[in-house]
Design goal:
Largest sheet: 3 strands, antiparallel
CATH architecture of the largest domain: 2-Layer Sandwich
Distance between the termini: 16 Å
CATH class of the largest domain: Alpha Beta
Radius of gyration: 25 Å
Number of helices: 13
Order of helices and strands: HHHHEEHHHHEEEHHHEEHEH
Number of strands: 8
CATH topology of the largest domain: Tetrahydropterin Synthase, Chain A
CATH superfamily of the largest domain: Elongation factor Ts, dimerisation domain
Shape: flat
Helix content: 40-55%
């Protein structure tokens, strides 16, 4: 029985497997999609390994804060699609990974992934038909530690305070997820970032005709504005824009020491694939 590119796409959609694997299965099954699925299910033990190269840029962040608010652990677990990231089995696996991170105090994915977690990941890959990866793990300690996870579980932050209380730390963490500062204080901004910003400012059209002294003052003013906009303690607090974050913390008897912001998939390049073109090229 002959089969078409449409049949390959249907089998791919129903199994989550690669196009060439689906084409091979259809060839061996004489074009019968149901027979091809049956044979592929018999070989399901191969699925986890064959999916390892597929980009997993969706997923969730799970954070566990210690009862004494002296430490917190965050893990980012990725899937290929947002649909899979909302699956209860995926959420359960991510929670198990976070609990394992707390128990082991692992500071890297390599140290975290025991044989049991590797086996659980492979079982989940086979169950939901997507590549699943434990991408990052963060372990944070401090005087007062708390966290905030946005409602979609894709953006989260952990904040460390000196003094104050957990509620204040959580409020600051909420601000971090929403506004995404680069550093805690202006002085923390890397010199190369400031130099690059200065270069950009000097290249702007309105700087060309200005005398050197005027240009220097303009650059200084714009750099200070850039630093204020990107430094956590200088930003207007999201819950009260009339108050800067640093002042909000100070009023609560605290000083912001550090923050860790995690956004699912940040830094991952996702290749856009034209499926029709891909099928045409392969068939």
């Amino acid at each position: 029985m002959a089969f078409s590119a449409k049949d390959v796409k249907e089998l791919r959609d129903r199994t989550g497997l690669g196009m060439m694997e689906c084409k091979k299965a259809l060839t061996e099954a004489g074009g019968d999609i149901d027979a091809a699925i049956e044979e592929l299910r018999k070989a399901s033990g191969m699925k986890a390994a064959k999916k390892a190269g597929r980009t997993a840029a969706e997923g969730i962040v799970v954070i566990k804060v210690a009862a004494d608010n002296k430490s917190a652990v965050a893990v980012e677990v990725n899937s290929e699609t947002d649909f899979a990231a909302r699956d209860e089995n995926f959420a359960a696996f991510a929670n198990t990974v976070a609990e394992a991170a707390v128990a082991s105090q692992a500071d890297s994915v390599e140290a975290l992934m025991t044989d049991e977690l590797v086996a659980a990941r492979e079982a989940l890959v086979q169950k939901i038909g997507e590549n699943i990866t434990v991408r990052r793990v963060f372990a944070v300690e401090g005087d007062v530690v708390d966290a905030y996870v946005h409602s979609n579980n894709k953006i989260a932050a952990i904040v460390v305070l000196e003094g104050g209380n957990a509620e204040t730390a959580k409020d600051v963490a909420m601000h971090v997820t929403a506004v995404n500062p680069q550093v805690v204080n202006k002085e923390d901004m890397p010199e190369d970032v400031v130099a690059k910003e200065k270069e950009i400012i000097l290249a702007q059209p309105d700087m060309a005709s200005k005398p050197a002294e005027i240009a220097e003052k303009m650059v200084t003013g714009r750099i200070n504005k850039f630093l204020a906009e990107n430094s956590l303690v200088e930003q207007p607090f999201v819950k009260n824009p009339d108050l800067k974050v640093g002042q909000f913390a100070k009023d609560a008897g605290a000083v912001v020491k550090s923050f860790t912001r995690i956004e699912v998939g940040e830094g991952i390049e996702v290749e856009e694939v034209d499926f029709a073109a891909e099928v045409a090229a392969q068939l």
